[in-house]
Amino acid sequence: VLENPNIQSSTKYGSVETYKEKEGYSSVDSYREIVQNVTKSISDEIRTSLDLIRKYSLQLKEKISDEETQTILQKILDETTSISRAIQAHEDFLSEKINLNAQIYFAEPVLSDIIRLLEGYTEFRGVKLSGKFEADSAILIDKNLFFQAMLQVVKIMCEEIQENGNINITIKRANSSLILELVNTASKLPESVLGCINRQVLISDNPGLNYAKNIIREHGGIISAWNNLNEGSQINIKIPVVK
Fold first, then answer.
1. Same structural domain, 54 and 131
2. Which residues are paired to 178 by β-bridges?
3. CA 240 – CA 139 distance, rounded (Å)
4. Three-state secondary structure call for residue 55
5. What is the pLDDT of residues 74-121, one digit of tens each?
6. CB neighbourhood size of 31 (10 A)
7. Residue 6 within any structural domain of the chain
8. Domain boundary at 68, 94, 120, which?
9. Is residue 7 part of a domain?
10. Which has the minimum average pLDDT: 24-38, 42-56, 92-106?
11. How many Å apart are CA 137 and CA 31, to the nearest integer?
12. pLDDT value at position 23?
């Protein structure tokens, strides 16, 4: 039984309608349809290439026993999986749907996999990502969607880190919640970003962050952010544990 009873299987976005009312933008639906069609066309082509890369990488893994090469090939496979998930997430976002397929897992193995995938993103941007588990609990989670939410959050932090920065993720337990603390000790977040995280976000402001917030909300969770007094910033994601 979840200690937070408010988790639902789906949520309808209200942001587009709010945007229409506040901005008076009458062609949102037309624009969205165009973007959806273009995205689908591009994603179909990309998926074909990704499937081939995955196929050839698996063939090489079967033929090569060298451990270092195996590790590199696994990283390639991880990245193709990450790209495929990102494409699907963008398609879902444009169609205003979140199909939550949540299952009960212990947090540490699931979040360890997510952190490992995020390391590929941060490494490319010259940012070191580390994870530390101070607690473990059963959680109800959609692994693919939660990765997309975490990716958007980490992306925001990376954009504000100039060079050779660090993002430290610590997982803690507080009463009936599991808390993911993402701490960047190098730079602060702009007030505009803090506002987007801590308030309701319109799609026109930051669609990626808006999508992440909705995924977290679907998990019965909340996200908050602030700048530390001296240096750096922190983003907390709190999700309920399963009793």
1. no
2. 173, 239
3. 7
4. helix
5. 888 888 887 777 777 666 666 556 778 899 999 999 999 999 989 888
6. 10
7. no
8. 94
9. no
10. 24-38
11. 43
12. 45
